[in-house]
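Risk mitigation, structural track. In case the binding assays with WT7 fail to produce interpretable data, a predicted complex structure has been prepared as a fallback.
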Amino acid sequence: MSDLHNRKVYQPNPEFAKNANIKSMDEYHALQNKAIENYEGFWGDYAKEKLDWIEPFTNTLDESNFPFVKWFDGGKLNVSVQCIDRHLKRRGEKTAILFEGDRGDVQKITYNELSRSVNKFANLLKEDLNVKKGDRVVIYMPMIPEAAYAMLACARIGAIHSIVFGGFSSAALKDRIEDADAKIVITADGAYRKTKPYMLKPVVDAAITEGSPIEKVLVVERNNEEVTWVEGRDVSYTKLIKDKSDVCAPEVMDSEDPLFLLYTSGSTGKPKGVQHNSAGYILWAQMTMEWVFDVKETDVFWCTADIGWITGHTYIVYGPLAMGATTLMFEGVITYPDAGRPWKMVQDHKINQFYTAPTAIRVLHKMGENEPSKYDMSSLKVLGTVGEPIDPPAWKWYYEEVGSSKCAIVDTYWQTETGGHIVSPLPGATPIKPACATLPLPGIMGEILDPETGQKVGAGESGYMCITRPWPSMIRGVWGDPERFVKSYFGDVKKDGKAVYFTGDGATYDKDEYITITGRTDDVINVSGHRMGTAEVEAAILKHKNVAEVAVVGRKHTIKGECIFAYVVLKSGEETGEKKEINAFIKQEIGSIAICDDMVFTSGLPKTRSGKIMRRILRSIAKGEAITQDISTLEDPSIVAKISEMVK
Ligand code: WT7
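Fallback model:
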């Protein structure tokens, strides 16, 4: 604990702070106090100032049906207008999307060009694919500009997009298509990775089986690889887009009309379709760009995420475009051709803000410790991290070598469900500490609570990271399952007798009331900053015919943060190649990201007499810790020693 309280403090760079959007802690406290005193006034004022309304809203926050809340009710807007049209007069010729392909090809897309492409795309969806307001459209795309056009085209006509990360398997894609009851898939005929083509279309083909709700597959031509063509179902983007008009009137959307779904793993069951709605989401996406990254009109912003994750949604597409910045989109792999690639790109494109995951930082550090010094990275002002706790050594390298000890590091803590950042330093105001997300952002009522009493915990104590008031960009529902929405997020912690939003993460305050996120309290594993549900991985493993029982837990991994450790009980015999076969199943059912690094074959699992698997014990064994928990309540206590022996 003393480590936690005595971490070195780094003050904001005074030169930078002078021109920052939030310049001091006094300003931060003033904003937060304003929000505490007049919550609706705080948010209502920003919504009026920052959003272009077609019709103004009449009610800032309606909590009468909590946790089903409404923000900015009565208001009408269109998110694509917020991201494109409103910039055209002043910044039409400014680069909106700066694209760098895997092979180094660069494309600069101005706001005017973006407008034309998105309007055409929107007309294509409407006219050729019969997409209507409220229809679900699955996007299974590589990182190419057309992926962003597809998102914004959906927003323009009021269709709900659901992006599925290109690394997910056909089985995972199929589940998501069916759960959302989507009628269209948008994909590509290939993309490039380390200069070699890779294919998405065959995965789509395998995901659409008898009885699928999919009517049409729109194929964007990126590589002209040969792909199977299903007559009557598959249509060519190049062919159809040619004669489309570049004017498509934006659909007039209510503040609370859904904008997108994004599936994410929970601790139990299948992935949940997290629903985000229009006004509140786009407001916070834009405001956090201004506050957390301090992005200015002339800045070039690079977030290395994939658009298949929430980070890509909010900080490659919606946030940067809503505020009229230039956003870099990168198709390739950051360590290819070598670990200097991102630093070369920072130099080439004069990147001002760079945002990535701790896993990427660890890889770049390991593979190219001295690479940053080979490039001119003086354009950098703010560095960001997201997705998992960052460890102090990675933080130090990032701060000193990448940021030349002059850039603030914003350790942004948030989730798919929060839409945008919730706990993060402000680069011109917050004194930072290594590997610490610091303070809730202004307007976010984030508190670490004791789950038993609902009281705020003290310095040095651990508790549950909660948000005690609804905020504009919060999740609005789990698609098709309102009960699961209530139970998953509002069932664990009550403050003053009222349910509050629980993130699923544990956290600790230090003596300055800085928040350090300590990781999930549930059975979710965070692999390279991506959430994996234990139940999903276990279900995939159980598909193997010789598997009787399985339990998976997370184990620390030097690069990935956490990796998956599986304990498998076979139906018969010794292990003979099952590990390989099981991982092949996982690849097929979920995707390579869920492959297990460790797999031990045991004769049983530690269970209580009622049959509940004691994962806590399995986690300790995986860590190599001595078992100090009481195991006398187990059905067969001797199993613990047996498994420990095997893992050694
Ligand atoms: C989970 C959310 C947020 C976009 C990417 C992941 C963990 C996220 C941090 C951070 C420590 C973090 C949490 C959270 N997490 N950011 N800065 N420090 N942990 O989105 O897949 O919804 O995962 O990632 O455990 O609950 P996601």
